[in-house]
Specification:
Protein name: Pyrroline-5-carboxylate reductase
Shape: elongated
Helix content: 40-55%
Structural class: alpha/beta
CATH superfamily of the largest domain: NAD(P)-binding Rossmann-like Domain
Main location: cytoplasm
GO molecular function: pyrroline-5-carboxylate reductase activity
CATH topology of the largest domain: Rossmann fold
CATH architecture of the largest domain: 3-Layer(aba) Sandwich
Oligomer: single chain
Distance between the termini: 25 Å
Organism: Turnera subulata
Number of domains: 2
Keywords: Amino-acid biosynthesis, Cytoplasm, NADP, Oxidoreductase, Proline biosynthesis
Radius of gyration: 21 Å
Largest sheet: 8 strands, mixed
């Protein structure tokens, strides 16, 4: 493969961003980029046959072009946000216009950089795995760089995906574990919110109040963990008084194998991700 030096730096102040695929994830990314001022909508483009999807992007200034080829030709950075089962055909179809001048990005789950680079014909590719909270600007994303992607490329993608949450960088071999934790993790938390609310109802709370308290409690606890920098075990101890209500509840969670169950869920999802990527 070509050396990283072969990549041509993208002009930071003038680059254009294109989305191949105009689904919910692409919309979340594009909307975040515009709302945070990273790029104006006029420098972003996509293409879609569905009028509803076109309108969604046009509502915050994104340009709608007639074809995916036109989107690639108009863009310096191209984000592939299509279903994993069709991305090979899409990349191969666009290969003639996927020049080394363009930084390519994939958010398709389970599709390796090795395959993406082979289909595109060059390795200036970055793979990013965001999760569904991107829709509310709170994504947990992880990126891995292809062989010819540069540090400047990585910084640019960090800014783009930083507009919809937080982004980390990791070796691609960790992506199955990332899927098991942050990719599938929101579903675990939704289940926890529902269970906490059900517990509140069982204890006598009205359903609406119980659900509101459960959701805000998890949001607040997560904010404390990220903003204070304290280990979650320390935060747990700070709210746990001797012989009090919290330690009584924690005792029940430990008896039910709460921590072990969550750990097992992450490991099982990571294993399934690995199985699916090998199909």
């Amino acid at each position: 493969m070509e050396a990283a030096a072969a990549a041509i730096p993208i002009p930071v102040e003038t680059y254009k961003l294109g989305f191949i695929g105009a689904g919910r994830m692409a919309e979340s990314i594009a909307r975040g980029v515009v709302q945070t001022g990273v790029l104006p909508g006029s420098r972003i483009s996509t293409s879609h046959s569905n009028p509803t999807r076109r309108s969604a992007f046009q509502s915050f200034g994104v340009q709608i072009l007639p074809t995916n080829t036109a989107v690639v030709e108009a863009s310096d950075v191209v984000v592939f946000s299509v279903k994993p089962q069709v991305i090979k055909d899409v990349v191969l179809q666009l290969r003639p216009v996927l020049t080394k001048k363009k930084l390519l990005v994939s958010v398709a789950a389970g599709i390796t950089l090795k395959d993406l680079q082979e289909w595109a014909g060059h390795s200036r590719f970055i793979r990013v795995m965001p999760n569904t909270p991107a829709a509310v600007g709170e994504a947990a994303s992880v990126m891995s760089l292809g062989a010819a992607a540069t540090e400047d490329d990585a910084e640019l993608i960090s800014k783009l995906f930083g507009s919809i949450g937080k982004i980390w960088r990791a070796n691609e071999k960790l992506f199955d574990a990332v899927t098991g934790l942050s990719g599938s993790g929101p579903a675990y938390i939704f289940l926890a919110i529902e269970a906490l609310a059900d517990g509140g109802v069982a204890a006598g709370l009205p359903r609406e109040l119980a659900l509101g308290l459960a959701s805000q409690t998890i949001l607040g606890a997560a904010s404390m963990a990220t903003k204070t920098g304290k280990h979650p075990g320390v935060l747990k101890d700070e709210v746990t008084s001797p012989g009090g209500t919290t330690i009584t509840g924690l005792h029940e969670l430990e008896k039910g194998g709460f921590r072990g169950t969550l750990m097992n869920a992450v490991v099982a999802a990571a294993k399934r991700s690995k199985e699916l990527s090998q199909v």
